[in-house]
Design brief:
Length: 387
């Protein structure tokens, strides 16, 4: 498949809410905004909103209820398809979750369910579409596995072409009794896949063959985090030189320098996401680098805030720049639009999505309007729409 160059520059990558280039695109007049949720209680699946990019307002457009617990989402690079994990207990008699495919209306972003396939493990929690739009890669938290599923030309999913299974445990007996693959991301060039495994304190590194849709161990096969860290998600700086891993259990962010020729991660720095003196319970969730590569944000669940850091352009090191309350409870995920002007935070514990305006000089956040009610929001993605 070949995709319009403008869409590739404007689209958010499925693996992170940052633009593919440090040269920021001109924002469109409006976005389709997709919110993945848990469907227990009043949840209805994937919610669709239209966003006015001048005012930052969101207008509800309905929801798709074809999949149970479509928590995490990824967009196809063409903008024609959307993929979601389904945190279900079984699929066709097997103990596995699913990945679901939807086609998207090019003018409105409306979703049409296509099909679903096994994610090859329990508790799928994160996924990404490769740069060629030929495969979906998914991480399964409960099973400690990662899998690759092929995509047909019509956007439908095929059965997995590759599955890898992790082994080991960590010192936190309650949370690290076995592997828990929590996210999967591709390097900017698409040669390497990184799986942050909370259960074994490692970011596993795989060589990715986008033609065959296979994962094979890299040399070296992983990067280690401090014992008990619980690495959850990661984000690349737009220039690809540095990787930032947020550690759920210790509430820290670890900076790695990235060697794109070898797939090597070399630790540079680890910093706390919490303000000094905080005594409550906390776990982190999402980490995002701004599209211009100047700022990093990480979500705190407990402190219920976004930690803000400035990024040194040469060393990649982080300097704390404050905290912004998310105006809700348990900020599971947040996303920055491709222009770098808006940040949307999903407060899973208070059933709300909050819009923030990003101050370009300082990276600080200003809330806009009132929180929008969305049952158990988990993941947010932007799709530019024609004016």
């Amino acid at each position: 498949m070949k995709f319009p160059h403008a869409i590739l520059l404007a689209m958010l990558g499925s693996a992170a809410c940052a633009a593919a280039s440090s040269r920021l695109p001109v924002p469109p007049a409006r976005y389709a905004v997709y919110v993945g949720t848990y469907t227990s209680g009043e949840g209805k699946g994937i919610f669709l909103f239209h966003m006015d990019t001048a005012a930052g307002t969101l207008v509800p457009q309905g929801a798709s209820g074809n999949v149970s617990n479509p928590s995490f989402l990824a967009l196809h690079p063409s903008g024609r398809f959307l993929y979601a994990v389904g945190e279900t207990g079984d699929f066709k008699g097997r103990k596995t979750g699913v990945v679901a495919a939807f086609s998207l209306d090019p003018n409105t972003g409306a979703m049409t369910f296509l099909n679903q396939e096994a994610s090859e493990g329990a508790g799928p929690c994160h996924l990404v579409v490769d740069r060629a739009g030929r495969h979906v890669l998914v991480a399964n938290y409960g099973a400690g596995t990662a899998a690759v599923l092929p995509l047909r030309d019509d956007g439908r999913l095929g059965t997995a072409t590759s599955v890898v299974r992790h082994e080991g445990s960590g010192p936190n007996k309650k949370r690290q009794d076995r592997p828990h693959a929590h996210s999967i991301n591709l390097s900017p060039g698409g040669r390497f896949a990184f799986v942050a495994d909370l259960g074994i304190d490692r970011v596993m590194v795989y060589r990715y063959d986008e033609d065959r849709g296979t994962l094979s161990p890299n040399d070296p096969p992983f990067a280690s985090l401090a014992p008990g860290s619980g690495p959850r998600h990661l984000a690349f700086r737009p220039d690809g030189r540095f990787v930032y891993v947020i550690n759920e259990l210790l509430s820290t962010v670890t900076v790695f320098a990235f060697d794109p020729s070898r797939g090597l991660l070399k630790e540079v720095q680890t910093v706390p996401t919490l303000p000094e003196g905080f005594q409550g319970q906390n776990t982190t969730a999402e980490v995002v680098v701004s599209p211009d590569g100047r700022f990093l944000y990480g979500s705190n669940r407990g402190h219920d805030s976004l930690a803000i850091f400035s990024i040194d352009p040469e060393s990649g090191r982080l300097t704390p720049a404050g905290h912004q309350p998310t105006l809700g409870k348990t900020p599971r995920n947040f996303c920055i639009d491709p222009s770098g002007r808006w940040l949307l935070a999903a407060n899973q514990g208070s059933d709300s999505v909050v819009v923030f305006r990003i101050e370009p000089g300082s990276g600080r956040l200003e809330p806009v309007g009132s929180p929008l009610t969305v049952p158990k929001p988990v993941c947010i993605r932007f799709l530019p729409l024609p004016g």
